[in-house]
Amino acid sequence: MPVRRYLPELIERVLAGRIDPGRVFDLTLPLEQVAEGYKAMDERRAIKTLLTP
């Protein structure tokens, strides 16, 4: 199944503190820095970037 089916629920759990994002995301940036998040993943400086509001 596509991840987008589960993504809204998983994001809600991360933001509510029910899932430790450190186990999923290894870089946290504000939404305004979305391009930097993609760059970090492309350059292999991050595996997954969590964007916060």
Précis, in short:
The protein is α+β, with helices and mostly antiparallel strands. The chain contains two helices and two strands, in the order αβαβ. The model has no long low-confidence stretch (mean pLDDT 90).
Which key terms come to mind for this protein?
53 residues; alpha+beta; 2 helices; two-stranded parallel sheet; 34% helix
Structure description:
With 53 residues, the protein is of the alpha+beta class. It has a domain at 21-53. It contains 2 helices and 2 strands; from the N terminus they run H-E-H-E. It has a two-stranded parallel sheet. Helix 2 (34-42) links the parallel strand 1 and strand 2. The protein starts with 6 loop residues before the first helix and ends with a strand.
